[in-house]
C-alpha cells in the first residue's frame, strides 16, 4: 500500500464522559503529526473534533476542516486551528469532500453523525466506490457493540466475511495507523 498522506477522521463534537476519549484524540493527533499525516475532519472546534484538530495543529501538522455553509458560524468555529478550511454548500458535499481527501478513514467515538459517516464510507467500500482502508479507534471498547452487530450480520447471513473484514479495529492509535498503512483489507466480490 502507498504511504498514507492524509486521514479523514470522523468523531464527536462532544468530549464524552470518559477522559480516555480525550486522551485518545490527543494520541491520535500526535501520532498523525509525528508521521506527517494530514488531518481531514468536520471543521468543528468542540469536542473530540476540536481536540484532534488542535493537537495536530500544535504539533505542526496540516489540518483541513470541511464545513457546510449552514455550520460556518462562530459557535461551531470558536477558534480556528485549520491550515485550511473548505466551505461547501451542504452536508452531502461536506462528506463527499472529506471522503475524497482522505487516503484512509478513522472513526473515533462519536454520536449519530459519526456513525452515519462511518456507515456511509463502509457501504461505499462494499460497493467498490473506493478501496481505502477504514479503521475504528476502539477506545474503551466504544465500538464493541458495532463490531458485535457486524458479526451477528455475518452469522445471520446478511454480511459477507469479506465485507466484515474491511473494518480494522484497534484501541491504540499508533497500531491503528500502522495497520491502515500496511494492510490491504479485502475488496468484497463484485455484484
Describe the structure in your own words:
By secondary structure, this protein is α/β, with parallel strands linked by helices. The chain has one domain: Rossmann fold. Helices cover 42% and strands 17% of the residues. It is built from 7 helices and 7 strands. It has helices at 19-34, 47-58, 91-101, 112-126, 144-155, 161-164, 173-182; strands spanning 6-10, 38-41, 63-68, 84-88, 104-107, 134-137, 167-170. Strands 4-3-2-1-5-6-7 form a 7-stranded parallel β-sheet, with helices on both faces. Helix 1 runs parallel beside helix 2 (47-58). The longest helix has 16 residues, at 19-34. The model has no long low-confidence stretch (mean pLDDT 92).
Topology:
Layout: E1 6-10, H1 19-34, E2 38-41, H2 47-58, E3 63-68, E4 84-88, H3 91-101, E5 104-107, H4 112-126, E6 134-137, H5 144-155, H6 161-164, E7 167-170, H7 173-182
Parallel strand pairs: 1-2, 1-5, 2-3, 3-4, 5-6, 6-7
Helix pairs in contact: 1-2
